[in-house]
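Need residues for this backbone.
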């Protein structure tokens, strides 16, 4: 398995690829901006990370792309100038606060391609809360357009039992599908929409649909982020950065080990942009 080069040690190579291009930042939340924790409701980002994200969003349009519901991610991040794509990109909203990147169209963005599934998701959530009560440590989370069943705190001997409960529930709902992330089962609509599609939609909303003068940078740690990494590879344009301490099969080009390194990378990007602006243009 390939160990991808560090985005910190190859920083100069990354910024060299941005010459003459507009950088647009895409950031996953859990495991990228905040540490992975046992209780998903306690996945708080640090104030220093918040300052780093706020700093990077000043020169570069920035979006948070998460499997969590959009409102919950916003409560964690608390930055109104960002774009937010929750529920794996099925709930997208433009910034609540104006910034110099926001064109009128982008500021008013609200896109929910799976709205018809909301009652179904609600039913599955309520049903699984009851059916998983027999599994100590299981936590069922309603992420608006998807249901997440966390098993990080479940005894390994019960993982298969929990998986069977979730699969049995899905048999009642052919329009929903099961995917798996880091210690979580996720029930999502079968529509062809994911974090990669969300990335493309946001680039279009920002006016960069078919532009060659844009460099999307996507940082994420989960399987679901691979959809975005694949889009960047297919475009032949953009940089995928996997957050992982261990080598993994990935479509990303670079890696960072943990949220602390993500913060270092963001701050270096901000400093590089500041120095680039200050440098005289002969």
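Answer:
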């Amino acid at each position: 398995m390939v160990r991808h080069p560090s985005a910190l040690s190859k920083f100069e190579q990354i910024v060299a690829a941005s010459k003459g291009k507009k950088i647009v930042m895409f950031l996953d939340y859990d495991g990228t901006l905040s540490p992975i924790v046992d209780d998903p409701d306690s996945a708080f980002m640090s104030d220093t990370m918040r300052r780093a994200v706020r700093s990077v969003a000043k020169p570069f349009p920035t979006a948070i792309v998460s499997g969590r519901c959009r409102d919950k991610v916003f409560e964690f991040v608390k930055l109104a100038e960002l774009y937010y794509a929750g529920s794996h990109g099925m709930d997208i909203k433009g910034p609540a606060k104006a910034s110099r990147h926001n064109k009128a169209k982008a500021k008013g963005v609200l896109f929910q391609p799976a709205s018809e599934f909301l009652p179904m998701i609600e039913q599955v959530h309520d049903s699984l809360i009851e059916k998983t009560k027999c599994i100590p440590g299981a936590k069922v989370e309603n992420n608006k357009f998807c249901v997440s069943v966390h098993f990080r705190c479940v005894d390994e001997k019960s993982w298969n039992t929990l998986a069977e409960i979730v699969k049995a529930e899905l048999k009642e709902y052919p329009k929903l599908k099961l995917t798996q992330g880091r210690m979580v089962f996720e029930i999502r609509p079968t529509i062809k929409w994911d974090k990669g599609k969300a990335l493309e939609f946001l680039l279009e909303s920002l006016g960069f649909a078919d532009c060659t003068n844009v460099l999307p940078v996507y940082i994420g740690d989960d399987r679901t982020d691979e959809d975005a990494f694949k889009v960047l590879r297919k475009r032949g344009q953009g940089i995928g950065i996997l957050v992982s301490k261990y080598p993994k099969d990935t479509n990303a080009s670079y890696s960072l080990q943990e949220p602390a390194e993500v913060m270092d990378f963001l701050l270096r990007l901000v400093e590089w942009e500041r120095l680039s602006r200050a440098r005289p243009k002969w």
